[in-house]
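If you are new to this repository, start here. Below is one unmodified record pulled from the training split, so you can see the exact layout before writing a loader.
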Amino acid sequence: MGKLMAGAKTLGSLLFAVAAATAAPLDPNERHVVINDGDTLTLQHLGDEFYSVARTEDGYLVVGDGKGVLYYADENGEPSKFKARDVRKRSNAERSFLNGLGREKPFRAHRSRAAKLLDESVEKRRKVRASWVPTLRPPSLLVMPTSHHSRGNLRFPIILVAGEADGRANFDSSGFYARLNEEGYSQDAYLGSVRDYFADQSSGAFTPQFDVFLVSESEAFENYIGREFELMARAVRSMLKKYSSFDASLYDSDNDGEVDAFGVLYAGDRYFSTENPSYHLGGFQTELANYKSTVETADGKSFNMCFIIDQGASHIVQLIHEFSHTMGIMDHYCVRSSGCTVNYADSAYQAPGAHAWDVMATGLYNGNYRKPPNYSAFERNFMGWLDYTNLGIDTLVKALPPLGTNNFAYRVSVNDKEWYVFENRQLVKWDSGLPNHGMLVWHIEYDGVAWRMDALNDIPGHQRVDIVEAGTLRVNSQSGGYRIYGGGATMADDPFPGSQNVTKLSPVLAWDSSEVLAGLFNITEPDTNVCFVLDSNVAINECVFVMPLSSSSEPESSSSSEESSSSVTPQSSSCSTSEPTSSSMPESSSSSEPQTSSSSEPGSSSSTTIVNHVLTGAEFRVALVGRVLDIVAPEMGVKVVRIFDLQGNVLASVSFAGTSYRLDIGAVARGTTLVVRLESGNRAKNFVVR
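And here is the target side for that same chain:
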């Protein structure tokens, strides 16, 4: 599906891809050796399931003649008279032809011809449309869609398909299950399981479980290139037949009659066509309903939302990327433009896309497939896992803590469809494979048509999920924005201050050139925090982050509409402790107030008494300084802070994933005694603060 071949059959598949599929960029790290008319030829693939090409290692476009022989493409993007060969095997005539042709012209012609065929087909369909069919933009495109199946402990079926005809065996099921679900999975240098990844991105709000089912396919995989929907439907039927006790209701969290999402992973590495290596099997997300191929279970549940990838070396990061599509997020690399696969060395713009910074771009391949980067604040907000903190126009110092451990980001809006996001990315855990650390500035603009077409970053001069680069280094190609291939050097200047020590972004402009902010000034990164001011005359003496707190009865993202600043200076505070005799939760209103003891240290601004301690392990510590809670929880994992009044009512609740945290409780304190409960896994500790 999504491969552009010469015939109408493939074009029809492409139209389905345009309307209803999201893909992933091909791995720039991969090289494939094929047999070309009896001789070996090494190829690199660019693009994705919508459109892909093959090129020689030194960058010349290769196309097939429809009979299994590959040729260099000519200036029209069609087969020339010269068969493709590796550099060392070329004749003088072949070298002369290639030198005179150049590398870019064939790519542009090939992509342009593909776009023209697609446009002609779409126009033909318009002409036969019934007169009553509306031509206005659907109302659903006017407002950004919302995510789905992105909260709770939900279950999803994953079907592994062995290839009998191809001699391809499935991955070990127990090992695969562990990679998907085991907490703290660390074998083979992984940073965690897929479940860990999503639990970290959501601060514990989404902890999926992936159930593994094994089936086999008798027909050769090559026969399903362009017909992947048939392979996925057959895999589901095989699973239902083999696992007769399969309970589809376990996978329909909203009880709408449809399995929330499922995945099909065929055995072995990505399968490339033997006739034309530009075409490959799978690597995208779609819905079977688009092909009238949904599969129903005996109890009436249907399989529809799905993705198909291979079981090769990058299967975990591919799964994270494609599963993210099932939740509604789009691709953030160049997908459809004629310039997606060309060189931008002579362009006014760099190659479009979020590149190694984003798991929805080539960042999914960071760290040898072991370090898919954290979701950006924009992606977390879309999923409902983060609430932006609005950037107020004042003279306060603005502090940004690491996004990966604090789930905090600033936003300034142009209107309801355009805004800027400011986040802090540090080289820790999932982000340890990024090109650099510091503040990333994202310029977001929602456009319904671009969203529906999955073409958010196709226009180099107007990307809709755009990183505002701090420095001047450029990424000149899609593969150049990949961490291993020098992308780390060309992208190290993207964050602020970055490798070029850029301490100012001024002015901040909307796409219509109107001023959003006069600027961000005195940008500094003294440690893991990033600070800046909105007034160039204000100096930054210290860069300390204090998390603002808003009232809530449920755990939510650890940000609010209040402002954060560096104005709070840590002070000394002591705690006296007493062993617990009460239950692990605050008592009801009939209970007496817990005993407290005051601090004996001069200058302390509070007293804190531990009233309950459950289990043992790393020591939790909480100190109140002014209206700020200083929290230390040395163990790894997501922690939840709940604040109660003495009647046991929940006043607020937030979660965090780091080992320390600072929380401004002024919004709920109001001079009353509070119980602060810190939870981590099966451990909990209560503190009384006055």
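Two things worth knowing about this chain: The chain has four domains: 8-135, 146-326, 388-546, 576-689. The CA atoms of residues 116 and 613 lie 69 Å apart.
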